[in-house]
Amino acid sequence: MKLSNFCLCILLSGSITFAEEIKITGGLENQSHVVVTLNLKTPVKNPEAAIGAKAIPAQATADGKSVVVLIDKIPAKETVTIHIVEGKTPPREVFVWKDPEGEKPVLEFAGKKVLEYVRPTYDKEATPPKQPLRTNPTTKVYHHLYAEDGTTRLTNGADGKFSHHRGIFYGFNRINYEGATGVDVWHCNSGESQQHVKTLTYEAGPLYGTHTVEIAWNGKDGKPFAREIRQLTVYQCPKGRLVEFQSTLSTPLEKVRLDGDPQHAGFHFRSHVLVEEKTENETYFLRPHGKGEKGKEENWANAKSPASTINRPWTAMSFVIADKRYTTVYIDHASNPKEARQSERKYGRVGTYFEYDLTKDKPLKVQYRLWVQEGEVTSEQCDDLYRSFNLPTKP
């Protein structure tokens, strides 16, 4: 049985079948939005799951041999029983990929936009006149996320003063390898780029939509020095979106030094340009050590920076778009490289970065989650989300 980024104690009286009752015991503290993948002996096409009389979201994987379920909340130490059966009718509201292998892949749920993969063909001449090269809209790939209304885009494109920060994005701005120095796949000022190569897989159903893509990281000479396999998954949850980002970066070279600074390296979420232009002083950050003032930031700067800017389990950024407040909770995973150095920007960006020596024998694997909802969150909610992603095996 595979537990998707979450460790649970599974108590079974026999082998798992699609009609069995499966008892799951939570950890020592509360967890919320718990994603569990159950491997089955009997493949299913249309699973239905319930805890007691309450239905819970469920989706079969592409081969039908596993079922993914989402449990809204598991109180500390509580045991719940999941019933899984083959449904008689397909669910009405589902995720659907539009143009999944084309130039404009879009993930929808119940006919509303959820996720958009921006994967332009690189054109080094596409920089607007009299603008810095970093404004070129074709230099890199990223993802847009939409609010639950399907029309409000929460993330930024190649817009505004800080157009080099785009959507849900991953990269580094200080990369050295084999005589090449200062390679920067964040600003892409000297011919660097991240280019879509191909779509490897995609799935969609009532609980989640996901796709996996191959991306070339190209240096100043336009040639690839690393290959990334990037997967994004969005889960349909009550009152919000749960987004999971997974990446494996590999290289054929002896060594690629990945480095940067908090603002231009690592995994980041950048909100819509309207935050930058109109409401940045309404942005605040909720941190494990407390709620910050509106318009105030905390960032790692050097070795003397406060401990609160290093290795945070989570950071919540609350921002306003078109008179409506949204919050993104950025959730780290304990397995990611450390130290993780904090980045906050009141114009609507949150993320962390680290240093890493990538070799042909040591790929870089990372995983993060984002919880995005309308309104505000509490520290308790953020703690629950972190534990769901990181909780160790129950003793």
Write the layout of secondary structure elements.
Layout: E1 9-11, E2 21-25, E3 31-39, E4 47-51, E5 54-56, E6 58-60, E7 66-74, E8 79-86, E9 95-98, E10 106-109, E11 112-118, E12 142-145, E13 168-171, E14 174-177, E15 180-183, E16 193-204, E17 208-218, E18 224-237, E19 240-250, E20 256-259, E21 266-270, H1 273-279, E22 284-287, E23 290-291, E24 314-321, E25 324-331, E26 341-345, E27 349-353, E28 356-358, E29 364-374, H2 379-390
Antiparallel strand pairs: 1-2, 2-8, 3-7, 4-5, 4-8, 6-7, 9-10, 10-11, 11-12, 13-21, 14-15, 14-20, 16-17, 17-18, 18-19, 19-29, 20-28, 21-27, 22-23, 22-24, 24-25, 25-29, 26-27
| Spatial separation of the terminal alpha carbons | 18 Å
Number of helix segments? 2
- Output the strand order for the largest sheet: 16-17-18-19-29-25-24-22-23
Helix content: under 10%
Task: Report what the structure shows.
The protein has two domains: 78 residues, Immunoglobulin-like (Sandwich); 296 residues, Beta-galactosidase, Chain A, domain 5 (Distorted Sandwich). Strand 6 and strand 7 form a beta hairpin. The relative contact order is 0.14. With 395 residues, it is mainly β.
Task: Summarize, please.
The protein is mainly beta and 395 residues long.
Tags for this entry?
Immunoglobulin-like; 45% strand; five-stranded antiparallel sheet; 2 helices; nine-stranded antiparallel sheet; 29 strands; 395 residues; mainly beta; Beta-galactosidase, Chain A, domain 5; 5% helix
